[in-house]
Design brief:
CATH topology of the largest domain: Rossmann fold
CATH superfamily of the largest domain: Thiamin diphosphate (ThDP)-binding fold, Pyr/PP domains
Shape: globular
Helix content: 25-40%
CATH architecture of the largest domain: 3-Layer(aba) Sandwich
Number of strands: 20
Distance between the termini: 78 Å
Radius of gyration: 25 Å
Structural class: alpha/beta
Number of helices: 24
């Protein structure tokens, strides 16, 4: 006989059965019936956010870093809609997430709380940014829907699943009663497609016959934790590695070159490598993305494409192509290349090392000319942070110029050093992002880098960092401007409008939350302030408020300018 329980109990029991140990969200009128059962499972940690969108960003970061299901709980209507940006980011980044929202019942009158004329509109809105969007209608179907949601989330390319739960099924005040709900039974993920040995053999033969192969590596390398295999392949075949937006190899790997521009454009050194290459290998790319387009446009005569989409037909035109678990595919190819002799590529190693050195030193030299500037050039501030930050630290950036300046100054010492909002380009992500990251890595220094405009979009969950004991460090470019947009407007139209922000004292803001605030108005104070802030994270969250100037931040060099000495 099926046990008697509520829909809320069945959902929480499903989360526990699937190994969920941390959830994020905000309780509201339409989802309190989902929250009450957590009282019976004290080992499941819940992080109560201050805005639903930030809750989704925390969950996305948690799922991204752990590879485990991240759970976000929100109320109906505005609660669910507020969180859509975080769910869309999870979809873009391939982060596993179970997103559960309260919902208005079909029988509610029009203009009820959190309702519009169509009670199912929330479920419809999530369909294009999730792998599955479903609405529970009958208590008895709850275990099956939850099991299917976890299976879909894990199958193929990971991503978010949305589940709408009408509050009449969970809220006692609405007449919800315990029902005979079947026991929970897990549904395993769909089996990985069998890799075609013939195609793998052809890939190995193409690689063996190539004189100068080159690798384009995408997010699939990180999603499938395949950086070790990518590094072995690159070093084994002497292939330089570039990436559209991510950092799939650590900075010190001898064949890691760097990234492409946002539009997939390459600098002169990378172009020279492309022109010499006779085989281009796309690894962990999604068909149709900028990275795949750059792969298609490379001048090499031969192409290998290892995609990672759920759709097995989503491949680019290539001499050999598959859609697969990136790690598994690389392991198969490495096995086929075992014992194949190849020179160590000392000349190419030297070229790449000199290129990276020129870029890194070039940025330091360029921003160094502003060491006496006041207000502070945020690029120079990042060079000072780079001198004191540990190589194990994690830097979380959003969709602002502040993150670009941080990547200029701080090398990706590991594949996790720089965490951004990816192609979604979210402003406001760093504050909830550092909370999610710190909960995963409590012993690492986690630093959010954001402009003042971006910080003001997500600042309310700095309080969540304090409350949860996630001792994080936020560094804010306080330049009283939406700087990147100002630059774009002036470049395109010769003038700018509606971009000014009042200059706030974010150090005092930190103190109102019981955290530590450090305000920097002079470049000479930067290094000491950063050292103090890093030490402070052992006991408290901290904001370093760097008083900057948007005109200075708009002065950044191109990579081609930095590597002229190589020519």
């Amino acid at each position: 006989m099926s046990p008697i329980k509520t829909v809320g109990q069945a959902i929480v029991e499903a989360l526990v059965a699937e190994g969920v140990d941390t959830t994020f969200g905000i309780p509201g009128t339409h989802n309190i019936g989902l929250y009450d059962p957590f009282n019976d499972f004290p080992n499941v940690r819940h992080i109560s956010a201050r805005h639903e969108n930030n809750a989704a960003y925390m969950a996305e970061m948690y799922g991204r870093l752990t590879g485990r299901p991240a759970v976000c709980l929100v109320t109906a209507g505005p609660g669910a809609i507020h969180s859509m940006a975080g769910v869309a980011q999870a979809f873009n980044m391939g982060s596993p997430m179970i997103h559960i929202g309260g919902a208005v019942s079909w029988s509610e009158p029009k203009e009820s709380l959190h309702a519009v004329d169509n009670p199912g509109f929330v479920n419809e809105m999530f369909k294009d940014i999730t792998k599955w969007s479903v609405r529970i209608e009958n208590p008895e179907e709850t275990p099956q829907i939850m099991a299917k949601a976890f299976s879909i989330m894990r199958s193929g390319r990971p991503g978010p699943v949305h589940i709408s739960v009408p509050w009449v099924l969970t809220n006692a005040r609405m007449g919800a009663k315990p029902s005979e709900i079947p026991p929970y039974q897990k549904i395993p993920p769909m089996e990985k497609p069998t890799l075609d040995a013939t195609i793998l053999d052809k890939m190995a033969d193409l690689i063996k016959s190539a004189r100068q192969p080159m690798i384009y590596a995408g997010r699939g390398v990180l999603i499938y934790r395949a950086d070790k295999e990518l590094g072995e392949l690159a070093e084994g075949i002497n292939a330089p590695v570039i990436s559209p937006m991510d950092f799939p190899l650590p900075y010190d790997h001898p064949f890691w070159v760097g990234g492409l521009g946002f539009g997939g454009e390459a600098d002169n050194f990378v172009k020279s490598l492309q022109e010499k290459s006779d085989l281009v290998i796309g690894i962990g790319l999604r068909a149709g993305t900028r990275g795949a387009i750059a792969f298609n446009n490379a001048p090499a005569q031969k192409r290998i494409f290892i995609g990672y989409d759920d759709n097995p037909t989503a491949v680019e035109k290539a001499d050999a192509a598959i859609v697969a678990d990136t790690k598994q595919a690389l392991q198969e190819i490495l096995g086929r290349l075992s014992g194949a002799p190849r020179s160590r590529g000392e000349e190419l190693r030297g070229q790449i090392a000199r290129y990276k050195k020129a870029v890194r030193e070039g940025y330091a030299e360029f921003y160094g000319q502003y060491r006496d500037a006041g207000p502070v050039h945020f690029g120079y501030a990042m060079t000072q942070l780079a001198q004191v930050v540990d190589k194990d630290a994690m830097i979380v950036g959003g969709g602002t110029i502040a993150r670009a300046l941080a990547t200029h100054a701080i090398p990706p010492y590991t594949v996790e050093t720089h965490q951004g909002s990816g192609p979604w380009g979210t402003m406001g992500f760093p504050t909830p992002g550092v909370v999610g990251a710190k909960l995963v890595y409590p012993d690492r220094v986690v630093i959010g880098v954001e402009g003042d405009g971006g910080f003001l979009m997500g600042f309310n969950d700095f309080g969540t960092a304090v409350e949860s004991g996630a001792h994080v460090m936020m560094v804010i470019a306080n330049d009283a401007q939406y700087t990147q947009i100002t630059r774009m407007q002036e470049m395109q139209f010769g003038r700018a409008v509606s971009n000014e922000i009042q200059r706030f004292n974010f150090a005092r803001f930190a103190e109102t939350f019981g955290a530590v605030g450090i305000r920097v108005e002079n470049s000479a104070e930067l290094k000491g302030a950063f050292k103090e802030a890093i030490e402070t994270t052992k006991r408290s969250s901290v904001i370093v408020d760097v008083v900057s100037d948007h005109r200075l931040a708009m002065t950044t060099p191109s990579v081609n300018d930095l590597i002229k000495k190589l020519n």
